[in-house]
Structure formats: structure tokens, C-alpha cells
Amino acid sequence: MALLAGLVIFPAAFSVGTNPDSGPSLLFITLPNVFQQAFSAIPGLGYIIAMLFYILLSMAALTSLMSLHEVSTAFLEEEMGTTRKSAALIVAISCMFLAIFCSLSLGAVERYHFFGMSLFSLFDFVTGQLFLPIVGFLTCILIGWFVPHKIVRDEFTNRGTLDNGGLFHIYLFLVKYVCPICILFIFLRQFGLL
User: What residues pair up with 117 in beta bridges, in sequence order?
Assistant: First the structure.
């Protein structure tokens, strides 16, 4: 979904003469300008499109939040032996606690820095610049080279109920060779090593 959004957002931003940035400035500064300029011929349509976009964005964020919350909740429930309700409560309170301090680091306590960054910037860097590419790279290596291909094929075809039309071999090739190389290239490039 993020790839499709990027395919729509970046050309739209360039087409109206706006330089698309990343992160919050893309979402809250660039996109509203793009919507206003793209639909300027019809008064009010830019606001309606922007409102629909932000409603859909909120739904995407909520569903992503639930799927991320589920991983930690399931871990606490299955591996630590807590009840599901207790596990969900522990995860929710932990996330709220971290979120409060991350939010405050953008205002009330912005003078405190860790490794030269605010807490919000540190978490953003660790998750987005380190964990995301490293875990993606390791996932590709694990799925492509170590998990038996029968298990991967069963997951890819929903235990044989979906006809993949020969796409499994293309998928496996991409996961084994193309994706790890691309992820590694992007990871090294963002730190100026390439």
C-alpha cells in the first residue's frame, strides 16, 4: 500500500511544482499543497480530497497499529504465559509511555538529547534507518535461503488453494537475490557508504 501511495504522491507533487520531502513534512505540508494546487479549478474539491485521504490514512495507521500490537501481545501471551488481556494491557501501557516521552521530546523536554538527537528522532532513526532495513534484509535471507521451499510455497499459495500461475519461482528469485541486494544498497547509500 505504501508503494502505491508513493507512486501516486511523488508524481503528483512534482506535477504541481512541489518538491516532495519525506516524513511529517510530506504528509502535513507537501500533500495539502498538492491537493490544493491539483484541484484548484474546482473550489473546495481539494479540501474534500485531502479529507478523504486523511481518513484513509487514519484507517491504514489504525490497522497497522493493531497488527504491530498483536505481535507483542501474542509473544507475552504465548511465551511469558500471561493472559491475553494482561498482555494487551502491558503492550498498550508500554507504547503509551514511550509515545508520551517521544511527543514531549518535540516540545516540553526538547533540550534533552541522546546521541545528539531528541528521543523522537532517536526512535525514528533506530526503527526507520536501522531496524527496518536490517530486519527486511534478514527476512529475505531467511525466507530465500533457509526456510524449506515447500513451506514458503504453501504460504505463497495458501496451502495450494491459490493458483499462482508460476509466480512462485519469480517471487522466490526476487526474495533470494533482488530484494537483499536492493535493501543492502539502500542501507549503505543512506549512510554514505556507496
Answer: 114
